[in-house]
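We close this part of the discussion by returning to an individual protein. The sequence in question and its C-alpha cells are set out directly beneath this paragraph:
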Amino acid sequence: MGSNSVVRILAALLPLSLLGGAIAQYDIRPFADDPVGISAAFGAEMAVLRLEAAEALFAEGVEVDEIEEALEGLEVEFMRFGAALEVADPDLLERTREAFAAIEEAEEAEDQAAAVSEALPVAYEVREAVSAPLVADPAYAGAVMSLLLVSETGVAEGWEEAVEGEVGPYAIGWAGMSRLYELWETVKPQADENQVFEIEDQLSALQDLFQNPTPPNMEGADPEEGEGAAVHVAGFLEDATGAWLFPDRDLAALLGNTQEVATQACEAYQRGDTLAGDANLVWVTYAFNEYLTGTLGMFAPEPTAELNELLDDEGEDFDPTASCEPLLAAFGEAGSAFGL
C-alpha cells in the first residue's frame, strides 16, 4: 500500500504489536507458522491475477505500457512460488519458466497478448498445485485474502493507484475481486451471521469500485476509499477464522520470525538451492519493507538503513555471496532493540 496508508494501519495496530502475546485474541497465527508457504500461495494467486488483468487489458485495447504495469511483477511471483512448485510438480515448474519467459521475450503487442493467453492456463495449474492445498484451511484462506486485500499489490492499492492514473494495478484489483469471493466461500462456513454480513457488505463495497478492468472516471475520487473496506474485511476475517491475519500484530515476533527466514534463505543459497533461497528472501524483503522498516527505523536506525539497502527491489538483485553476512548481522542488531 502507499506509505501513508501503511503508517495509518501501523498506527492503529502498534499498541497491539508492542504488547504482543499479552493481549492475544487468537490462537492461530498463520504468518508465524508458515510465512513462506503463505508467500508461495500469494505468489501463485498473484500470477493468475496479473495474467487475467493483462489479458483483459489487451482485449480492451489498452496501451502496452499500461499492460506491462500488470505484468512487471511476474518475476517476483515466480520467486515466491518456485520452490514450492518444484516440490509439487517439477514438470510444471519448467513449463511455467517457459511461459513467463515467452511473455518477457515477446517484442510486439500481438505476440505478447498471445503469450499472456498461453501462460494463463499454466498459471491456473500453478495456483492449483501451490495455493489450493494451503487455502483449503480457512485460516490460511483468510491469510491469503488479507494479502490480496491490503498488501502493496492488493485490491485497495489498485484503487489508490488508479486515482493516481495507473491502469495496471487497477486491473489487478478488478481480477482480484472474483478470487476474493471464491476464497471467502472457504471461510464463510465458520463465520457467524454478523461476520457474514460485515464481510459481504464490504466486499460488495469493494466490488462497486471494480466494475470493469479499466478504471472509471476518477476525477474527485478518494484514493483511500478502497482501504477502509479492505481493512474492515480483513479484521472480520480474523474474527471468523480465529487467526491473526495482519502479520504485524506483534512486531517483535514478526521481526524474530523474519530473521529466522533470512537465515534459512542464506543457508539455502549456501547449499546451492536458489529456488528455496529466493522463496525465503522474497518473504524477508516483503515483510521488512511492508511492515518492519518504519518502526525499526525509530528503534534501531543504523541496522534499518543497512537493511533498506540490502532488501531493495523485492530481493531481485540480492547477491547472496556479498550480502548474506551483513543481512544477518543487521537483523541481529535490529533484534537486540526488541530483546531478541
